[in-house]
Amino acid sequence: MSIPKDLERFSLASKWLRRILKKNDHLIIANSTERKLLQNGSRS
User: Fold this and answer.
1) Judging by beta carbons within 10 Å of its beta carbon (0-12, 13-18, 19+), is residue 9 exposed, middle or buried?
2) Distance separating alpha carbons of residues 11 and 5, to the nearest angstrom
3) What is the CA radius of gyration of the chain?
4) What is the DSSP letter of 3?
5) Does the predicted model carry a pTM greater than 0.85?
6) Element (H or E) spanning 1, and its range?
7) Can you say whether the dihedral through the CA atoms of 37, 39, 42, 44 is positive or negative?
8) From CA 15, how far away is CA 38, in angstroms rounded?
9) Domain of life, per the record (predicted)?
């Protein structure tokens, strides 16, 4: 196992982790806004 290959794998993994986390953040934001809209809709 050479160091550069491990670094490449690590950078790829971190890139994917960042992408997944970004997607999760967007999903969380969408879910929270949907809940707010539903709450407002049920109130009115």
Assistant:
1) exposed
2) 10
3) 19
4) H
5) no
6) none
7) negative
8) 34
9) Bacteria
Q: Under DSSP, is residue 2 helix (H, G, I), strand (E, B) or coil?
A: coil
What would the two tokens of residue 44 be?
């009115």
Question: Position of tokens 């934001």?
Answer: 29
At 12-39, the pLDDT tens digits run: 999 999 999 999 998 888 899 999 988 8
Backbone angles phi, psi at 2, to 5 degrees: -90, 150
Which amino acid is located at 1 in the chain?
M
CA 10 to chain centre: 18
Which amino acid is located at 37 in the chain?
Answer: L
